[in-house]
């Protein structure tokens, strides 16, 4: 079950890495590029908050984060058990580690709240997208004990992967040039409808896959993007897809 192992491991590492970047606190080991990012963030925090307090809290928070994760997520056990992951033991595996990964999100939530005070405009929107992709991915991964991974290993799924670039190119015609170049926070209702039409087009194209739930993989990015943009006022996630229940 290589795809499930890769995604679970990647997500677990991503959650931890988000809050355990040793280079966040200014140090001799930080790269020049990393150092510039840190110093830029420090300047932004000072400019937007008027003090150094927020940045100092971020440094302290990132330093404490690895200890927080160690108290919630058994990475050593996960690394060992994921090697043996298969259909017969997935209920136990996901039942054990999904609650741990969900609990570990509390280690990064305060950090993102602090970061939000140091960003604005498009930078804030992009940060919100990245932040909200983590629980979206985790929820999908854990749903029905990782059912989506085992369901999407058939030849139908591979057929979709092979054609996905073609589907994307064809459906991109739903999005105008003005929408492509517009800031997320400035999208109007018509442009937001274009994004919704794009997703609907992809859902229809994926009918050939005969794989229920595959549109959820796209929604890991799509939903956070919409929520972080002005489109949150116009797009209703509760509406059903054009393909009934996405049984495609």
TrEMBL record:
Signal peptide extent: 1-23
Pfam families, per database record: DUF1397
InterPro entries named in the record: DUF1397
Keywords tagged on the record: Signal
Protein name as annotated: AAEL003483-PA
Organism: Aedes aegypti
Lineage: Eukaryota, Metazoa, Ecdysozoa, Arthropoda, Hexapoda
